[in-house]
Amino acid sequence: MDASLAVRLAELGISPARLAARGLQPYAEADAASLVLADMNDAGREFHLLPGAATAWQAMRDAAAADGVTLFLVSAFRSVARQYEIVAAKLARGQCLDTILAVSAAPGFSEHHTGRAIDIGTPGSPVLEEHFETTPAFAWLQQHAANHGFAMSFDRNNASGYLYEPWHWCWQDPAAQPTSKGLTA
């Protein structure tokens, strides 16, 4: 962990030991120049991802639509600075740090920093709520997301200590995956 990240965590009252005890590792922030527009919502909000993740998202969204299931992005790339703002705002509202860190990653520790993670919504379901698991969209993702390189990151009782997030999926870059000989491609 670099010194500037350690300072930002200290400003929020988050000790590196607390994160290490949960087995959490920092994620490198994707270079903004490497991100591409993956999607845009009806309000004009843009969602950026790494090119491979963006292409995989678009193919997955379109495949779901072909099966009569609507998926939309709620969140995609998020900078370390933005993650800091999210946690700081929750602290300013008087939320307990333990409660915050059960639902929000510490700055530097979010998969969203990588440009590969997405939060998915579907019409008729509240966003970023466990209710998402009861939707046809979630059932479709469970059957088909892996075909597009996406895996759900935080299932029930996950080792990282985050609450269950059926809406949070991360693209597994095939170029970074081991080949059958145990080497990366």
UniProtKB/TrEMBL annotation:
Q: Which Pfam families match?
A: VanY
> Where's the D-alanyl-D-alanine carboxypeptidase-like core domain?
50-171
Q: Which Gene3D superfamilies match?
A: 3.30.1380.10
Question: Do you know which InterPro entries this protein is assigned to?
Answer: DD-CPase-like, VanY-like_core_dom, VanY/YodJ_core_dom, Zn_M74/Hedgehog-like
Q: Which CDD domains match?
A: LD-carboxypeptidase
User: What's this protein's name?
Assistant: M15 family metallopeptidase
Source species of the chain: Vogesella aquatica
